[in-house]
């Protein structure tokens, strides 16, 4: 596997379910990100981890819970979601977000989530 | 809150035509990035512009960063069907590698 991979690619869940999204990067990067892409809004940054430490949490509801056990893996745990949470969830990684020069983010293909 | 407005939101043209996509903000960005996203995939970086007034060319694509680093444009010459996709601009702020994305321009190039 190369680049950034995400599983599952598609997920349908009920509002009472608990599920997890997984992201894995094979690029040796130090930072990982979760974004939400919905039809009617710009891509929104949810969480940023740098060296396994959360450095950004953009007022995301507590029903989304991230976990970064190491620099290569990132999870998004989902619990009691709402239908408006249906969206494409994208993971990205970059070398070092604290770099003074622009630090390229590489995106995975996303998980298409539908909440019924 | 920094906002990026992209226009147009949708664009449908014939192969061979030229087009320009705009990305505007009232905020200053340390750099601006352009991505292309195809269905079922994540965004892929096309270019990063850093200096005010900078122009970068990528084959038939020309990217320009405004002098004040608040706006950018993407011009495609002689569009091809393979250019079809969602084009996203993203501004990077001075606080680190946190990107603010525009709403995107969905381009369809018809044969």
Describe the protein.
Chain A is mainly beta and 116 residues long. Chain A has no helices and 11 strands. In chain A, a hairpin with a 2-residue loop joins strand 7 and strand 8. The model of chain A has no long low-confidence stretch (mean pLDDT 90). Chain B is an all-beta fold. The radius of gyration of chain B is 13 Å and the shape is globular.
Cα-atom Rg of chain B, whole angstroms? 13 Å
Q: Specify the overall morphology of chain B.
A: globular
Span from first to last CA of chain A?
32 Å
Beta content of chain A: over 45%
Helix proportion of chain A = under 10%
pLDDT averaged over residues of chain B = 93
Q: Quaternary status of these chains?
A: heterodimer
Question: What is the approximate shape of chain A?
Answer: globular
Blueprint (SSEs and pairs):
The complex is a heterodimer of chains A (about 120) and B (about 110).
Chain A: E1 4-7, E2 10-13, E3 18-25, E4 31-37, E5 44-50, E6 53-57, E7 64-70, E8 73-79, E9 87-94, E10 106-107, E11 111-115
Parallel strand pairs in A: 2-11
Antiparallel strand pairs in A: 1-3, 3-8, 4-5, 4-9, 5-6, 7-8, 9-10, 9-11
Chain B: E1 5-7, E2 10-14, E3 19-24, E4 31-37, E5 44-49, E6 55-58, E7 61-65, E8 71-76, E9 85-92, E10 99-101, E11 105-110
Parallel strand pairs in B: 2-11
Antiparallel strand pairs in B: 1-3, 3-8, 4-5, 4-9, 6-7, 7-8, 9-10, 9-11
């Amino acid at each position: 596997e190369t680049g950034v991979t995400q599983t599952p690619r598609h997920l349908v869940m009920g509002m009472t379910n608990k599920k997890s999204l997984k992201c894995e990067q094979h690029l040796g990067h130090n930072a990982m990100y979760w974004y939400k892409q919905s039809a009617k809004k710009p891509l929104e940054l949810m969480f940023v981890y740098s060296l396994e430490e959360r450095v950004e949490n953009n007022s995301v509801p507590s029903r989304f819970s991230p976990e970064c056990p190491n620099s290569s893996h990132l999870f998004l745990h989902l619990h009691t979601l709402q239908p408006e949470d249906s969206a494409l969830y994208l993971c990205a990684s970059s070398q070092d977000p604290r770099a003074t020069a622009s630090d390229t983010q590489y995106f995975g293909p996303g998980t298409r989530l539908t909440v019924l | 809150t920094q906002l990026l407005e992209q226009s147009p939101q949708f664009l449908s043209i014939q192969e061979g035509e030229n087009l320009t996509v705009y990305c505007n903000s009232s905020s200053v960005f340390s750099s601006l990035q352009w991505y292309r996203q195809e269905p079922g995939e994540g965004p892929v970086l096309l270019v990063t512009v850093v200096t005010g007034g900078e122009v970068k060319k990528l084959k038939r694509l020309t990217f320009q960063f405004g002098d004040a680093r608040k706006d950018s444009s993407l011009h495609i010459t002689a569009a091809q069907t393979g250019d079809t996709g969602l084009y996203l601009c993203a501004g990077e702020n001075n606080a680190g590698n946190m990107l603010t994305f525009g709403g995107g321009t969905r381009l369809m190039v018809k044969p």
